[in-house]
Amino acid sequence: MISILYIVLILILLNKNSFFNIKGINKFEIITALFIHLIAGAALYFIYTKYYSERYTADIFKYYDDSLVLYDSFFSNPLDFFRIILGLDFDKQYFLNNYFIEMNHWDTSYKNSLMNGSRMVIKINAILNIIGLKSYIFNMLTFIFISFLGKFLIIKSIIQKFNLKYPKLFFWSITLIPTIALWSSGILKEPLIILSFGLILHTMIGKRIANWLNLSLLILGLGIIFKVKFYVFICFFPALISFVISNNFKFKPIKVIPLVCLILFISIGLLTNIEDSYNPLYILANKQNDFIRLAEIFDAGSSFKMTPIQPNLISLIKSIPNGLINGFLRPFPTDIHKLIHLFPLIENLVIYGIIAILIYKLNILKVKLEIEMQNIILNSIFFVTILFVITGISTPVIGALVRYKVPGLIFIIITINLLYDVLKKNSTQ
Question: Is 393 a residue whose pLDDT tops 80?
Answer without folding.
Answer: yes
